[in-house]
Design goal:
Strands 1, 3, 4, 6, 7, 9, 10, 12, 14, 16, 17 and 18 form a twelve-stranded mixed β-sheet that branches. A six-stranded parallel β-sheet has the order 2-5-8-11-13-15, with no helix packed on it. The protein is globular. The longest helix has 5 residues. 3% of the residues lie in helices and 48% in strands. The N terminus and C terminus are likely disordered. By secondary structure, the chain is mainly beta. The chain has one domain. It contains one helix and 18 strands.
Length: 153
């Protein structure tokens, strides 16, 4: 809308749904679109890394590593996230682990405890990463601040 680019060509439909009352222990490999409303203990890896999309609802939880091109999170993730394309952290998102992303959108209310590492597509092929450490959760309740620190590896 208004001339903005599409968000890295997100997969626009869901091929697989994991319901609210579903608990899965084990790794999941998928292609296309996957929506998780339940609880997953295991790694989630997209077979088609270019056009895959993972949507985690506000009731969904994942404990494990995520490797998907495009990710939208509104639930809780404990483990590292690798989103080569687009990553959106919605208002109820809680992430406990490092995040590797191509492009990023964070809504007010989302929280991350871990490193946020930007991966440029050209640089990722050369294994040269630009690292940015962003603290989104204040260290003490009386100090409401956001600090940013940049380092190059």
């Amino acid at each position: 809308m208004f001339g903005r680019k599409k968000k890295n060509q997100l997969h626009n439909h869901i091929d697989t749904l994991i319901g609210v009352n579903t608990n899965i222990t084990g790794d999941i490999s998928f292609s296309g679109g996957l929506r998780i409303d339940g609880h997953i203990t295991g790694n989630i890896i997209a077979a088609d890394d270019e056009h895959s999309t993972l949507v985690l609802s506000d009731e969904g939880r994942i404990e494990g590593e995520i490797k998907v091109a495009n990710i939208v999170i509104n639930g809780t993730v404990t483990g590292p996230i690798h989103a080569r394309g687009y990553l959106e952290l919605q208002a109820k998102a809680k992430v406990y682990g490092d995040i590797h992303y191509g492009s990023l959108e964070i809504q007010l209310g989302a929280s991350v405890e871990g490193k946020m590492i930007h991966q440029d597509k050209l640089e990722s092929g050369n294994k040269q990463l630009s690292e940015k450490k962003i603290t989104l959760i204040p260290s003490t309740p009386d100090k409401q601040r956001i600090s940013t620190e940049s380092d190059a590896i």
